[in-house]
Amino acid sequence: MRILITAIFILSLSFAAAAQAGSPQFTSGYKPAEFADAKRLEKIKQTFPAIEKMYKEHAARNHYPGIAFGIVVDGKLVFAGNDGFTNLEKKIPVTSQSLFRIASMSKSVTAMAILKLRDDGKLKLDDPAYLYVPEMRTLKYPTADSTHITIRQLMTHGAGFPEDNPWGDRQLSDTNRELSELLENDLRFSNPPSITYEYSNLGFALLGRIVTKASGKPYQQYIRESIWQPLGMKTTEWEYSKIAPEKLAHGYRWLDEKWSEEELLHDQADGSWGAMGSMISSIDEFSKYMALHLSAWPPSSAAETGPIRRDSVREMHQPWRFSGMNPNFTYPGGRVCASVTAYGYGLGWQRDCQGRVYLGHGGGLPGFGSHWRVMPEYGIGIVAFANVTYAGVGNLNLQILDMIIREADLKPRQLPASTILDKRKAELLKILPSWENAEQSGLFAENFFPDNPIEHLKKNHAEIWAKAGKILAVREIVAQNQLRGTFILEGENADISVYFTLAPEDPALIQQLIVSEIMNK
After folding, report:
1. What is the CATH classification number for the domain harbouring 466?
2. Using CA atoms, how far apart are residues 75 and 381, in angstroms rounded to an integer?
């Protein structure tokens, strides 16, 4: 936990500095990670019948009036399915164009708007929030050593506000005047700011107010013009009364073995609560927003094409505030794999024992439940909307992603070896195992031979090569990053692993080398 918190602090400093420094210079030699399996999409498509069956059975078992779902791969919606009705009275069937209120899935869009304003120099993430919401200046904090709430703390659920589900759901149609009165009437805290993670709808309502102030436009208009429209999200809305009746999903509650319709709350033009949960979208259009998140990976020098810089999207994806660790985390399918969770900017972050990273967010309101996840290293994403109160599709989405990876035998992107790694590998092969003239080769950093006496290296490696026998083949290097990697020498009796890492100087020289035998014959 201490390591994760330290990493979050360092990330905070580095991104803040980067935001002020402008566009950096870059080299042309960086090779982005890539997928090795040319039949990857074909294998994923083979899972679609099973996915559709899982969603429909889940919807029937849990009394969903309607459900819509989709799979995004490499930035494209490759599969969309649906079942049931958006309007039970009129029997209007669900389609991938049906518009569902997606509740707290709205939060990441609001966070993206904040980052875009930051990128444009309209605000700083560590600004006190009261600069944009004056009523916050007079808040009474729990302790004398509390600091004023910052924008970053609001974005990461670290402001100290109490968890406010389901109270927050009922504030959706409140006006800014009502929000101001709430702030002025001695608002209660559960913790001092920046102490711990605690989910807060109020925090994101305040972010909506900040977007309005910093942009000079209602947050709804700013997000529509700055994010939705550039992505081609033409029918996505905030206010349900603006949607064609045949497209709008009505919300229901299953109670006493029957459905009752939930009243849809308006999104107030003079309000901010919708920034936490008022967005209404379809599978067809929300998949474009998911594609934007996937397009930020891997880092590359390609031209920017999105409404916001790729590095700002990746900034959203970092684990900014630790939220939990479960050493016995169990996937819905029964597989046990320890997991750590955190909150990014408007996004949940999860990493499991296999190093898989999931990013996404759920949404729940009276009448609706939704969830989306993307796995950038695998280039895939999943989304589902349902029109029953707090529909639990999050665990199902996780189960389906796990199934796709298993059944399609998916592997994450692999970094190709950089030019300098390949060069150092070739030079090492000329030296190993004799180490003849190694100290004069100019291949090693200044620390290397003081840390690794040459006579010890000669003796140790002679023994390893003797056990391996004749070298039959040299495998390609497997890069961990641009300056670190491992390659295998295949021997008659045993294989040899050669790991090396380069120092940050230019030219990059070998600072560490670990050679070990693999007795697999």
Report:
1. 3.10.450
2. 9
